[in-house]
Amino acid sequence: MDRIITAVLVGAGNRADVYATAAEKYPDKIKIVGIVEPDAARRELMREKHRVPEENCFSSVEEFVAREKFADAVINGTMDSLHVKTSLPTLERGYDLLLEKPFAVNEGEMRALCECAERCGRRVVICHVLRYTDFYRAVKAASAEIGSIISVEMCEHVNYHHMAVSYVRGKWRSEKICMAPMLLAKSCHDIDIMLWMMRGVRPVSVASFGSDFQFGRERKPEGAGSRCMADCKFVDDCIFSAKSNYLSAVRWGQYVWRCLDGEEATDERKAESLRTDNEYGRCVWDFDRDGNVDHQTVIVNFENGAVGSFSMIGGSAKSERNIHIVGTRGEVKGTFEDSRFVVRKMAPDTKAGYTETVHDLRVGGDMIGARGGHGGGDEHLVLDFVDYLNGHEASESCATLRDSMMSHLTVFRAEEARRLGAVVSIWR
Ligand SMILES: NC(=O)c1ccc[n+]([C@@H]2O[C@H](COP(=O)([O-])OP(=O)(O)OC[C@H]3O[C@@H](n4cnc5c(N)ncnc54)[C@H](O)[C@@H]3O)[C@@H](O)[C@H]2O)c1
Protein backbone atom coordinates (compact mmCIF):
# COMPACT_ATOMS: atom_id res chain seq x y z
CA MET A 1 0.00 0.00 0.00
CA ASP A 2 1.18 3.53 -0.75
CA ARG A 3 2.64 5.64 2.07
CA ILE A 4 1.63 9.18 2.93
CA ILE A 5 4.39 11.32 1.43
CA THR A 6 5.76 13.93 3.83
CA ALA A 7 6.96 17.21 2.36
CA VAL A 8 8.73 20.40 3.42
CA LEU A 9 7.79 23.66 1.68
CA VAL A 10 10.75 25.79 0.69
CA GLY A 11 9.36 29.26 -0.07
CA ALA A 12 5.86 29.47 1.37
CA GLY A 13 4.47 31.84 -1.27
CA ASN A 14 1.61 31.68 -3.78
CA ARG A 15 2.66 28.56 -5.66
CA ALA A 16 3.72 26.55 -2.63
CA ASP A 17 0.34 27.38 -1.12
CA VAL A 18 -1.42 26.08 -4.23
CA TYR A 19 0.48 22.77 -4.14
CA ALA A 20 0.12 22.43 -0.37
CA THR A 21 -3.67 22.65 -0.78
CA ALA A 22 -3.50 19.06 -2.03
CA ALA A 23 -2.37 18.07 1.47
CA GLU A 24 -5.59 19.48 2.92
CA LYS A 25 -7.69 17.77 0.29
CA TYR A 26 -5.85 14.42 0.28
CA PRO A 27 -4.49 13.89 3.82
CA ASP A 28 -4.08 10.19 3.07
CA LYS A 29 -1.59 11.01 0.30
CA ILE A 30 0.55 13.97 1.32
CA LYS A 31 1.33 15.86 4.51
CA ILE A 32 3.24 19.11 4.95
CA VAL A 33 5.64 18.58 7.85
CA GLY A 34 8.08 21.47 7.53
CA ILE A 35 8.42 25.04 6.23
CA VAL A 36 11.43 27.06 5.12
CA GLU A 37 10.48 30.71 4.64
CA PRO A 38 12.39 33.87 5.58
CA ASP A 39 9.20 35.95 5.87
CA ALA A 40 7.98 35.35 9.42
CA ALA A 41 4.34 36.24 8.71
CA ARG A 42 4.11 33.89 5.72
CA ARG A 43 5.88 31.14 7.64
CA GLU A 44 3.45 31.43 10.53
CA LEU A 45 0.42 31.48 8.24
CA MET A 46 1.49 28.29 6.53
CA ARG A 47 2.55 26.71 9.82
CA GLU A 48 -0.92 27.22 11.27
CA LYS A 49 -2.65 26.07 8.09
CA HIS A 50 -0.81 22.74 8.05
CA ARG A 51 -0.29 22.41 11.83
CA VAL A 52 3.47 22.08 11.39
CA PRO A 53 5.48 21.75 14.63
CA GLU A 54 7.52 24.89 15.49
CA GLU A 55 10.78 22.93 15.48
CA ASN A 56 10.23 22.06 11.79
CA CYS A 57 10.01 25.70 10.69
CA PHE A 58 13.11 27.48 9.44
CA SER A 59 14.01 30.87 8.07
CA SER A 60 16.69 29.57 5.71
CA VAL A 61 17.62 26.47 3.73
CA GLU A 62 20.98 26.39 5.53
CA GLU A 63 19.18 26.04 8.89
CA PHE A 64 16.87 23.39 7.42
CA VAL A 65 19.59 21.16 5.99
CA ALA A 66 21.62 21.42 9.18
CA ARG A 67 18.94 19.07 10.59
CA GLU A 68 18.87 15.36 9.75
CA LYS A 69 16.47 14.48 6.95
CA PHE A 70 12.94 14.28 8.41
CA ALA A 71 10.65 14.11 5.33
CA ASP A 72 10.46 12.45 1.94
CA ALA A 73 10.47 15.49 -0.27
CA VAL A 74 10.81 19.22 -0.70
CA ILE A 75 8.32 21.35 -2.62
CA ASN A 76 10.33 24.35 -3.81
CA GLY A 77 8.16 27.39 -4.62
CA THR A 78 10.79 30.10 -4.35
CA MET A 79 11.23 32.69 -7.11
CA ASP A 80 13.00 31.81 -10.37
CA SER A 81 16.52 32.95 -9.47
CA LEU A 82 16.51 31.03 -6.17
CA HIS A 83 15.45 27.63 -7.51
CA VAL A 84 18.91 26.16 -7.98
CA LYS A 85 20.55 27.88 -5.03
CA THR A 86 17.89 26.61 -2.62
CA SER A 87 17.56 23.16 -4.22
CA LEU A 88 21.19 22.00 -4.27
CA PRO A 89 21.54 21.71 -0.46
CA THR A 90 18.22 19.87 -0.14
CA LEU A 91 19.24 17.31 -2.80
CA GLU A 92 22.56 16.85 -1.02
CA ARG A 93 20.61 16.25 2.19
CA GLY A 94 18.72 13.42 0.46
CA TYR A 95 15.33 14.99 -0.34
CA ASP A 96 13.43 14.29 -3.54
CA LEU A 97 12.14 17.46 -5.13
CA LEU A 98 9.09 19.04 -6.72
CA LEU A 99 10.48 22.23 -8.23
CA GLU A 100 8.79 25.23 -9.81
CA LYS A 101 9.59 26.33 -13.32
CA PRO A 102 11.79 27.73 -14.72
CA PHE A 103 13.94 25.33 -12.77
CA ALA A 104 17.10 27.27 -13.68
CA VAL A 105 17.69 30.71 -15.16
CA ASN A 106 20.76 29.89 -17.24
CA GLU A 107 22.55 26.92 -18.73
CA GLY A 108 25.25 26.78 -16.05
CA GLU A 109 22.66 26.56 -13.27
CA MET A 110 20.69 24.00 -15.24
CA ARG A 111 23.67 21.69 -15.59
CA ALA A 112 24.67 22.13 -11.95
CA LEU A 113 21.24 21.00 -10.79
CA CYS A 114 21.15 18.01 -13.15
CA GLU A 115 24.62 16.93 -12.05
CA CYS A 116 23.72 17.23 -8.37
CA ALA A 117 20.42 15.33 -8.70
CA GLU A 118 22.16 12.53 -10.60
CA ARG A 119 25.08 12.30 -8.20
CA CYS A 120 22.76 12.25 -5.18
CA GLY A 121 20.37 9.80 -6.87
CA ARG A 122 17.37 12.02 -6.17
CA ARG A 123 14.11 12.24 -8.08
CA VAL A 124 13.25 15.71 -9.34
CA VAL A 125 9.96 16.69 -10.99
CA ILE A 126 9.42 20.10 -12.58
CA CYS A 127 6.05 21.84 -12.26
CA HIS A 128 5.05 21.83 -15.93
CA VAL A 129 1.42 21.90 -14.91
CA LEU A 130 0.02 22.23 -18.43
CA ARG A 131 1.02 18.63 -19.14
CA TYR A 132 -1.45 17.59 -16.45
CA THR A 133 -4.46 19.41 -17.84
CA ASP A 134 -7.23 17.40 -19.47
CA PHE A 135 -6.91 19.58 -22.56
CA TYR A 136 -3.23 18.99 -23.34
CA ARG A 137 -3.42 15.33 -22.35
CA ALA A 138 -6.33 14.80 -24.75
CA VAL A 139 -4.64 16.81 -27.54
CA LYS A 140 -1.53 14.70 -27.15
CA ALA A 141 -3.53 11.47 -27.28
CA ALA A 142 -5.37 12.70 -30.39
CA SER A 143 -2.09 13.70 -32.05
CA ALA A 144 -1.11 10.01 -32.08
CA GLU A 145 -3.84 9.45 -34.68
CA ILE A 146 -2.73 11.95 -37.33
CA GLY A 147 0.39 10.27 -38.73
CA SER A 148 3.86 11.75 -38.35
CA ILE A 149 3.89 15.28 -37.02
CA ILE A 150 5.10 17.82 -39.58
CA SER A 151 4.42 20.98 -37.62
CA VAL A 152 3.34 22.20 -34.19
CA GLU A 153 2.09 25.80 -34.18
CA MET A 154 1.38 27.34 -30.81
CA CYS A 155 0.43 30.75 -29.49
CA GLU A 156 0.03 32.20 -26.03
CA HIS A 157 -1.81 35.49 -25.70
CA VAL A 158 -1.11 37.13 -22.35
CA ASN A 159 -3.85 39.64 -21.64
CA TYR A 160 -3.01 43.32 -21.01
CA HIS A 161 -3.70 43.28 -17.25
CA HIS A 162 -1.69 40.08 -16.69
CA MET A 163 1.10 41.57 -18.80
CA ALA A 164 1.11 44.76 -16.73
CA VAL A 165 0.89 43.16 -13.30
CA SER A 166 3.52 40.46 -13.82
CA TYR A 167 5.86 41.53 -16.61
CA VAL A 168 5.79 45.33 -16.44
CA ARG A 169 5.09 46.33 -12.83
CA GLY A 170 5.68 43.02 -11.13
CA LYS A 171 8.19 40.44 -10.04
CA TRP A 172 9.10 39.31 -13.56
CA ARG A 173 9.46 42.81 -15.02
CA SER A 174 13.14 42.68 -15.82
CA GLU A 175 15.97 40.24 -16.00
CA LYS A 176 17.87 42.33 -13.46
CA ILE A 177 15.16 41.59 -10.90
CA CYS A 178 14.12 37.99 -11.61
CA MET A 179 17.02 36.82 -13.80
CA ALA A 180 14.56 35.33 -16.30
CA PRO A 181 13.53 36.92 -19.62
CA MET A 182 9.78 36.82 -20.31
CA LEU A 183 10.05 33.82 -22.65
CA LEU A 184 11.60 31.77 -19.86
CA ALA A 185 9.43 33.06 -17.02
CA LYS A 186 6.13 32.86 -18.87
CA SER A 187 6.50 30.44 -21.73
CA CYS A 188 8.95 27.68 -20.81
CA HIS A 189 5.69 25.76 -20.20
CA ASP A 190 4.65 26.22 -23.82
CA ILE A 191 8.01 25.22 -25.29
CA ASP A 192 7.84 22.20 -23.00
CA ILE A 193 4.41 21.32 -24.43
CA MET A 194 5.75 21.66 -27.99
CA LEU A 195 8.60 19.25 -27.26
CA TRP A 196 6.27 16.90 -25.37
CA MET A 197 4.01 16.69 -28.42
CA MET A 198 7.08 15.73 -30.49
CA ARG A 199 7.60 12.63 -28.32
CA GLY A 200 11.37 12.63 -28.04
CA VAL A 201 12.21 13.98 -31.53
CA ARG A 202 15.02 16.34 -30.63
CA PRO A 203 15.05 20.04 -31.49
CA VAL A 204 18.27 20.94 -33.34
CA SER A 205 18.19 24.67 -34.00
CA VAL A 206 16.16 27.73 -33.24
CA ALA A 207 15.47 31.27 -34.47
CA SER A 208 13.55 33.95 -32.65
CA PHE A 209 12.26 37.50 -33.03
CA GLY A 210 10.70 39.80 -30.51
CA SER A 211 10.90 43.19 -28.87
CA ASP A 212 9.18 45.56 -26.52
CA PHE A 213 6.35 47.06 -28.54
CA GLN A 214 4.18 48.81 -25.95
CA PHE A 215 6.19 49.75 -22.90
CA GLY A 216 9.27 51.78 -21.97
CA ARG A 217 9.57 55.48 -21.10
CA GLU A 218 9.78 56.60 -24.72
CA ARG A 219 6.19 55.45 -25.29
CA LYS A 220 4.69 57.17 -22.26
CA PRO A 221 1.63 59.23 -23.27
CA GLU A 222 2.25 62.95 -23.06
CA GLY A 223 0.95 64.40 -19.83
CA ALA A 224 0.70 61.06 -17.99
CA GLY A 225 1.70 61.13 -14.32
CA SER A 226 4.02 58.83 -12.40
CA ARG A 227 1.34 57.16 -10.25
CA CYS A 228 -2.14 56.44 -11.61
CA MET A 229 -3.99 57.48 -8.47
CA ALA A 230 -1.71 60.31 -7.39
CA ASP A 231 -1.02 62.52 -10.38
CA CYS A 232 -2.34 61.03 -13.62
CA LYS A 233 -5.13 62.68 -15.60
CA PHE A 234 -5.70 59.39 -17.49
CA VAL A 235 -6.53 57.43 -14.33
CA ASP A 236 -10.11 56.73 -15.45
CA ASP A 237 -9.32 56.06 -19.12
CA CYS A 238 -6.04 54.15 -19.24
CA ILE A 239 -6.38 50.38 -19.76
CA PHE A 240 -3.47 49.84 -17.35
CA SER A 241 -4.88 52.11 -14.62
CA ALA A 242 -4.10 50.71 -11.17
CA LYS A 243 -7.44 52.09 -10.00
CA SER A 244 -9.55 50.16 -12.50
CA ASN A 245 -7.49 46.98 -12.48
CA TYR A 246 -6.72 46.54 -8.78
CA LEU A 247 -9.42 48.49 -6.92
CA SER A 248 -12.55 48.51 -9.09
CA ALA A 249 -11.99 45.12 -10.73
CA VAL A 250 -10.06 43.53 -7.80
CA ARG A 251 -7.57 41.58 -9.91
CA TRP A 252 -4.23 40.02 -9.00
CA GLY A 253 -4.55 40.58 -5.24
CA GLN A 254 -1.87 37.98 -4.49
CA TYR A 255 0.72 40.26 -6.07
CA VAL A 256 -0.64 43.76 -5.63
CA TRP A 257 -1.43 43.62 -1.90
CA ARG A 258 1.66 41.69 -0.85
CA CYS A 259 3.04 44.98 0.51
CA LEU A 260 0.14 45.07 2.99
CA ASP A 261 0.81 41.59 4.40
CA GLY A 262 0.21 41.68 8.13
CA GLU A 263 -1.93 44.86 7.98
CA GLU A 264 -5.67 45.10 7.63
CA ALA A 265 -6.05 45.65 3.87
CA THR A 266 -9.03 48.01 3.85
CA ASP A 267 -10.04 49.80 0.64
CA GLU A 268 -8.68 53.05 2.09
CA ARG A 269 -5.32 51.46 2.92
CA LYS A 270 -5.13 49.88 -0.54
CA ALA A 271 -5.88 53.18 -2.26
CA GLU A 272 -3.33 54.95 -0.06
CA SER A 273 -0.66 52.38 -0.91
CA LEU A 274 -1.32 52.73 -4.65
CA ARG A 275 -1.01 56.51 -4.28
CA THR A 276 2.26 56.30 -2.35
CA ASP A 277 4.66 53.34 -2.09
CA ASN A 278 3.06 50.36 -3.84
CA GLU A 279 5.03 49.39 -6.98
CA TYR A 280 1.77 48.36 -8.64
CA GLY A 281 0.51 51.95 -8.39
CA ARG A 282 3.26 53.23 -10.70
CA CYS A 283 2.74 54.21 -14.33
CA VAL A 284 3.42 51.20 -16.59
CA TRP A 285 5.57 53.34 -18.89
CA ASP A 286 7.97 54.35 -16.10
CA PHE A 287 9.72 51.03 -15.51
CA ASP A 288 13.20 50.07 -16.69
CA ARG A 289 12.63 47.31 -19.21
CA ASP A 290 16.27 46.15 -19.38
CA GLY A 291 15.76 44.79 -22.88
CA ASN A 292 12.83 42.56 -21.92
CA VAL A 293 10.18 41.88 -24.55
CA ASP A 294 6.40 42.01 -24.59
CA HIS A 295 6.09 39.69 -27.59
CA GLN A 296 8.34 37.00 -29.02
CA THR A 297 8.16 34.33 -31.69
CA VAL A 298 10.28 31.18 -31.65
CA ILE A 299 10.83 28.84 -34.60
CA VAL A 300 12.23 25.41 -33.84
CA ASN A 301 13.75 22.98 -36.34
CA PHE A 302 13.58 19.29 -35.29
CA GLU A 303 16.05 16.54 -36.17
CA ASN A 304 13.54 14.79 -38.47
CA GLY A 305 12.76 17.98 -40.41
CA ALA A 306 9.54 18.83 -38.59
CA VAL A 307 9.11 22.40 -37.39
CA GLY A 308 7.55 24.09 -34.40
CA SER A 309 6.56 27.70 -33.95
CA PHE A 310 5.47 29.49 -30.83
CA SER A 311 4.39 33.08 -30.32
CA MET A 312 4.01 34.72 -26.95
CA ILE A 313 2.04 37.93 -27.36
CA GLY A 314 1.70 40.10 -24.29
CA GLY A 315 -1.08 42.65 -24.28
CA SER A 316 -4.09 40.92 -25.84
CA ALA A 317 -7.65 41.59 -24.66
CA LYS A 318 -8.16 37.99 -23.53
CA SER A 319 -5.65 35.37 -22.44
CA GLU A 320 -5.65 32.36 -24.68
CA ARG A 321 -3.44 29.44 -25.67
CA ASN A 322 -3.88 27.93 -29.12
CA ILE A 323 -2.33 24.85 -30.64
CA HIS A 324 -2.47 23.42 -34.17
CA ILE A 325 -0.62 20.17 -34.88
CA VAL A 326 -0.42 19.00 -38.47
CA GLY A 327 0.48 15.41 -39.27
CA THR A 328 0.79 13.39 -42.46
CA ARG A 329 -2.75 12.00 -42.00
CA GLY A 330 -4.62 14.78 -40.26
CA GLU A 331 -4.50 17.61 -37.76
CA VAL A 332 -5.49 18.62 -34.24
CA LYS A 333 -6.47 22.20 -33.51
CA GLY A 334 -7.75 23.71 -30.29
CA THR A 335 -7.89 26.41 -27.65
CA PHE A 336 -6.99 25.63 -24.07
CA GLU A 337 -9.32 28.18 -22.46
CA ASP A 338 -12.28 26.76 -24.39
CA SER A 339 -11.15 23.21 -23.48
CA ARG A 340 -12.22 22.33 -26.98
CA PHE A 341 -10.35 20.96 -29.99
CA VAL A 342 -11.09 19.38 -33.36
CA VAL A 343 -9.43 16.40 -34.98
CA ARG A 344 -9.47 16.38 -38.77
CA LYS A 345 -8.49 13.30 -40.70
CA MET A 346 -7.80 13.08 -44.40
CA ALA A 347 -10.66 11.31 -46.17
CA PRO A 348 -10.41 11.56 -49.97
CA ASP A 349 -13.78 9.84 -50.47
CA THR A 350 -15.68 12.59 -48.65
CA LYS A 351 -16.94 15.84 -50.16
CA ALA A 352 -14.78 18.01 -47.90
CA GLY A 353 -11.72 15.79 -48.25
CA TYR A 354 -11.57 15.25 -44.52
CA THR A 355 -13.62 14.19 -41.51
CA GLU A 356 -13.85 16.36 -38.44
CA THR A 357 -14.55 15.36 -34.84
CA VAL A 358 -15.14 17.99 -32.17
CA HIS A 359 -13.87 17.23 -28.66
CA ASP A 360 -15.46 19.47 -26.06
CA LEU A 361 -14.03 18.63 -22.63
CA ARG A 362 -16.12 21.32 -20.92
CA VAL A 363 -13.60 21.76 -18.13
CA GLY A 364 -13.04 25.52 -18.33
CA GLY A 365 -9.37 25.65 -19.32
CA ASP A 366 -7.23 27.76 -17.04
CA MET A 367 -10.07 28.89 -14.78
CA ILE A 368 -9.54 28.46 -11.08
CA GLY A 369 -12.78 26.78 -10.17
CA ALA A 370 -13.85 23.54 -8.62
CA ARG A 371 -11.10 21.77 -10.52
CA GLY A 372 -8.35 23.98 -9.13
CA GLY A 373 -5.66 26.03 -10.90
CA HIS A 374 -4.55 25.40 -14.49
CA GLY A 375 -7.71 23.43 -15.24
CA GLY A 376 -6.94 20.92 -12.50
CA GLY A 377 -3.30 20.59 -13.61
CA ASP A 378 -1.88 21.86 -10.29
CA GLU A 379 -3.62 19.16 -8.30
CA HIS A 380 -2.90 16.34 -10.77
CA LEU A 381 0.77 17.29 -10.67
CA VAL A 382 1.03 16.93 -6.88
CA LEU A 383 -0.84 13.61 -6.86
CA ASP A 384 1.38 12.30 -9.66
CA PHE A 385 4.50 13.35 -7.74
CA VAL A 386 3.17 11.41 -4.74
CA ASP A 387 2.65 8.31 -6.91
CA TYR A 388 6.12 8.68 -8.38
CA LEU A 389 7.72 8.84 -4.93
CA ASN A 390 5.71 5.78 -3.97
CA GLY A 391 7.59 3.87 -6.64
CA HIS A 392 5.03 3.92 -9.44
CA GLU A 393 6.22 4.43 -13.01
CA ALA A 394 6.55 8.09 -13.99
CA SER A 395 3.32 9.04 -15.77
CA GLU A 396 3.32 10.39 -19.31
CA SER A 397 2.79 13.89 -17.92
CA CYS A 398 5.65 13.70 -15.43
CA ALA A 399 8.39 16.21 -16.36
CA THR A 400 11.63 14.86 -14.98
CA LEU A 401 14.69 17.03 -14.87
CA ARG A 402 15.98 15.43 -18.10
CA ASP A 403 12.71 16.20 -19.96
CA SER A 404 12.56 19.72 -18.71
CA MET A 405 16.22 20.28 -19.49
CA MET A 406 15.47 19.96 -23.21
CA SER A 407 12.78 22.65 -23.13
CA HIS A 408 14.85 24.96 -20.91
CA LEU A 409 17.82 24.62 -23.24
CA THR A 410 15.56 25.43 -26.20
CA VAL A 411 14.37 28.57 -24.41
CA PHE A 412 17.93 29.65 -23.53
CA ARG A 413 18.98 29.18 -27.15
CA ALA A 414 15.87 30.99 -28.46
CA GLU A 415 16.67 33.99 -26.30
CA GLU A 416 20.24 33.91 -27.55
CA ALA A 417 18.96 33.71 -31.15
CA ARG A 418 16.69 36.73 -30.59
CA ARG A 419 19.47 38.81 -29.12
CA LEU A 420 21.99 37.83 -31.81
CA GLY A 421 19.51 37.93 -34.69
CA ALA A 422 20.84 34.53 -35.76
CA VAL A 423 19.88 30.88 -36.05
CA VAL A 424 21.36 29.05 -33.05
CA SER A 425 22.16 25.35 -32.66
CA ILE A 426 20.68 23.76 -29.58
CA TRP A 427 23.34 21.12 -28.95
CA ARG A 428 26.93 22.32 -29.11
N1 LIG B 1 3.82 26.38 -12.62
C1 LIG B 1 3.17 27.50 -12.87
O1 LIG B 1 2.24 27.51 -13.64
C2 LIG B 1 3.58 28.78 -12.21
C3 LIG B 1 2.67 29.85 -12.12
C4 LIG B 1 3.09 31.01 -11.47
C5 LIG B 1 4.37 31.10 -10.96
N2 LIG B 1 5.24 30.05 -11.09
C6 LIG B 1 6.60 30.10 -10.55
O2 LIG B 1 6.51 29.82 -9.15
C7 LIG B 1 7.59 30.45 -8.46
C8 LIG B 1 7.06 31.17 -7.23
O3 LIG B 1 6.19 32.21 -7.60
P1 LIG B 1 5.24 32.84 -6.49
O4 LIG B 1 4.39 33.85 -7.15
O5 LIG B 1 4.60 31.77 -5.70
O6 LIG B 1 6.33 33.59 -5.60
P2 LIG B 1 6.16 34.17 -4.12
O7 LIG B 1 6.99 35.40 -4.07
O8 LIG B 1 4.71 34.27 -3.75
O9 LIG B 1 6.79 33.04 -3.21
C9 LIG B 1 8.17 32.86 -3.05
C10 LIG B 1 8.43 32.70 -1.56
O10 LIG B 1 9.81 32.36 -1.38
C11 LIG B 1 10.24 33.00 -0.20
N3 LIG B 1 11.72 33.07 -0.20
C12 LIG B 1 12.53 34.08 -0.59
N4 LIG B 1 13.82 33.74 -0.40
C13 LIG B 1 13.82 32.48 0.09
C14 LIG B 1 14.85 31.58 0.49
N5 LIG B 1 16.14 31.91 0.37
N6 LIG B 1 14.50 30.38 0.97
C15 LIG B 1 13.19 30.01 1.07
N7 LIG B 1 12.17 30.83 0.71
C16 LIG B 1 12.48 32.05 0.22
C17 LIG B 1 9.59 34.38 -0.28
O11 LIG B 1 9.60 35.04 0.97
C18 LIG B 1 8.20 33.99 -0.76
O12 LIG B 1 7.32 33.74 0.31
C19 LIG B 1 8.26 31.35 -9.49
O13 LIG B 1 9.45 30.75 -9.93
C20 LIG B 1 7.27 31.43 -10.62
O14 LIG B 1 7.88 31.64 -11.86
C21 LIG B 1 4.85 28.90 -11.69
What would your notes on this structure say?
With 428 residues, this protein is α/β, with parallel strands linked by helices. The protein has three domains: 5-122, Rossmann fold (3-Layer(aba) Sandwich), CATH 3.40.50.720; 131-214 and 292-374 and 397-425, 2-Layer Sandwich (Dihydrodipicolinate Reductase, domain 2), CATH 3.30.360; 217-286, no CATH class. The chain has 15 helices and 15 strands. It has helices spanning 14-25, 40-50, 61-66, 83-92, 107-120, 134-143, 160-168, 175-178, 182-197, 228-231, 242-248, 253-256, 267-275, 377-389, 401-420, and strands spanning 5-10, 30-36, 57-58, 73-76, 96-99, 124-126, 149-159, 203-211, 295-302, 307-316, 320-327, 330-335, 340-346, 354-360, 424-425. The strands form two sheets. Strands 14-13-12-11-7-10-9-8-15 form a nine-stranded mixed sheet. Helix 2 (40-50) links the parallel strand 2 and strand 3. Helix 4 (83-92) runs parallel beside helix 5 (107-120) and helix 9 (182-197) crosses helix 15. The longest helix has 20 residues, at 401-420. The termini are far apart. Residues 10-15, 36-39, 42, 61, 77-80, 82, 86, 100-101, 127, 129, 185, 374 line the site of nicotinamide-adenine-dinucleotide (NAD).
* Cα separation of the termini: 46 Å
Give the overall form.
globular
Instruction: Report low-confidence residues grouped into runs of 5 or more.
Output: none
Strand order of the largest sheet: 14-13-12-11-7-10-9-8-15
Give helix % range: 25-40%
By CATH, the superfamily of the largest domain comes out as: Dihydrodipicolinate Reductase, domain 2
Described by strand count, sense and barrel closure, the largest sheet is: 9 strands, mixed
CATH architectural designation of the largest domain: 2-Layer Sandwich
Bound small molecules, by name, code or SMILES, are:
nicotinamide-adenine-dinucleotide
Q: How many separate domains make up the residues?
A: 3
Series of H and E elements: EHEHEHEHEHEHEHHHEHHHHEEEEEEHHE
Structural class: alpha/beta
Amount of beta strand: 15-25%
CATH third-tier fold name of the largest domain: Dihydrodipicolinate Reductase, domain 2
Number of helices, counting only DSSP H or I runs of 4 residues or more: 15
